Amino acid sequence: GCLTPLRNTSTTLDNLLKSYDIRLRPNFGGQRLDIGIELIVVSFDAISEVNMDYTITIHLNQYWLDDRLSFDSYDVSSMTLTGEFAEKIWVPDTFFANDKNSFLHDITEKNKMIRLHDNGSVVYGMRFTSTLACMMDLHNYPLDIQNCTVEIESYGYDMHDLNLNWKDGRSSVYGIDNVELPQFSLIEYRTVRRIESLSSGITTVLTMTTISNGVRSSLPRISYVKAIDIYLVVSFVFVFAALLEYAAVNYTYWGKRAKKKFKKIKDTQPMIQDGKYNSVDFAEIDEIRMSPIIAIRSQGNCAENGEKISRTIVASPVLPRNCMSRSYYRENLVRRKNSSVKRRRQLNSNVREKSVKCKLPRINLPRINDVNCIDRYSRMVFPLLFVCFNVMYWVFYLFVKKDT
Q1: What's the rounded Cα separation, in Å, for the pair 306 and 378?
Q2: Predicted pLDDT at 1
Q3: Cβ atoms of 128 and 57 closer than 8 Å
């Protein structure tokens, strides 16, 4: 008694396949066959901007009517069979036109099934993972919204033979709701107050460069400018401008002292040439440092021939200190004066030649008496400009660009 339904079902299947021709579609030679499509999205696995594709795992169910598979049975109204039965009947040759790579899940068995109803309607379902191409427009990246499609077609039949349509309209595609990337939730956060030392300057420049290279490597090589490129370039400009501001402050502060010293020496040169400075003043200006001479103090007059005395000064430590030093200073001052005059003449001639060769238009820069004012203005101007840039950037890409 218990084996009767099983025998009847097996007999029914055998009878269905006896005169069944797998090579011919249902309604062959008549009106076209309607195929209902249903997609159930199991998971949204990955999105690759570099390869411009995305990977999803889906259930694909196909519905059609095959009169050759209708049966009369008092025991069952439908039969669910394994995927192996699909090799014995006609099934649609549907494929994904934008598919790059797909595989059918086979743990623990091949994820395929056939369901037959007594009126001849057939349900053919399978579960697989597919990587599909998606031509992305990255002008607004990373604030972009992409429209990626699943393109289902028949490989061999045209529209006169098959008509693919969604089984239940827009509700034929369903699965996970509210898919968001990245898929995480902020559960908890905490803040700690402490004194922190921040490394800036060249470290920040290197950080911005590293971020830019990372973004560039994670995106395809495209010819147009992306939204993230604009943001990173402007941020890099702000960081580099901060370095220039630091250099300007240092140059202004330390350059003032050098200019004052150079001006003092320049002002004294005409007076030296006119003879208004004596030998001692000239020695001070040229920063001549005389070696100290240690001699024994003794009473006596100076020799008339100071030159002879100065030549024997090392060998005659008993000479009077005042006579020896006077003749020694005179010789050294004359020698150093002649060499310094030659150097000044050569330097002045070189300066005149360079000024004639490259005479640039003079730019009068505003005089800065206090270098701290540069820092004070920078602390106001830099954040204000960066805030203005962010306001315009986010308003444009979140509202203006999104609407267009």
Answers
A1: 66
A2: 45
A3: yes
H or E stretch covering 213: helix 202-217
Cβ atoms of residues 167 and 38 within 8 Å: yes
Is there a contact between 144 and 136 (Cβ–Cβ < 8 Å)?
yes
Is 380 contained in some domain?
no
Q: What is the pLDDT of residue 195?
A: 67
- Do residues 63 and 121 lie in contact, with contact meaning Cβ atoms separated by under 8 Å? yes
pLDDT score recorded for residue 294: 40
| CATH code of the domain covering residue 82 | 2.70.170.10
State residue 212's pLDDT score: 80
**Residue whose tokens read 């031509």:** 135
- Which residues of the chain are under the pLDDT cut of 50? 1-3, 279-324, 356-358
Angle between helices 227-273 and 372-395 (to 10 degrees): 160
Alpha-carbon distance of 2 to 7, in angstroms, equals 9
pLDDT for 350? 57
Task: Supply the range of the domain harboring residue 134.
Answer: 4-175
Find, among 147, 85, 146, 154, the residue nearest to 115 by Cα.
85
